[in-house]
Amino acid sequence: MPSRLPIALAVLVAGCSLVGCGGRDPVTVQLRKDRQFLRSEVEDLRARNAELEARLAAVEVTDGATLSATQLAATPTATDLAFGRLTGLSSEQSLDVYVTPVDAVGDVIKVGGSVKVSLFDLSTAEETALGEWTFDAAELRDRWRSGRLFSGYVVTCPLDAPPADDAELTVRVQFDDALTGRSLVGVKVLGE
Question: Which DSSP state fits 107?
Answer without folding.
Answer: -
